């Protein structure tokens, strides 16, 4: 997830592809805070599991690549 101008974006969402040209094209993540329960929920944030270090590093690489693609676009 990347936060830019107080808006969260899911960098690992399966609907994202390398052709995304702007950060705003990525799915927006919404934060819901439940003060009474003391919990925070994130809506529209994809969940991924990694069984190995290689899988975790691959997810990190994919998110970083998507961040860079969105960052350098006009």
Automatic annotation (TrEMBL):
Transcription regulation as a keyword?
no
Per the record, the similarity remark reads:
Belongs to the TRAFAC class myosin-kinesin ATPase superfamily. Kinesin family.
- The species is Schistosoma mattheei
Q: Which domain of life is it from?
A: Eukaryota
Q: Name one GO molecular function term.
A: microtubule binding
Q: For this UniProt record, give its keywords in alphabetical order, as a comma-separated list.
A: ATP-binding, Nucleotide-binding
Specify the protein name. Uncharacterized protein
Task: Give TM regions.
Answer: none
Nucleotide-binding listed as a keyword: yes
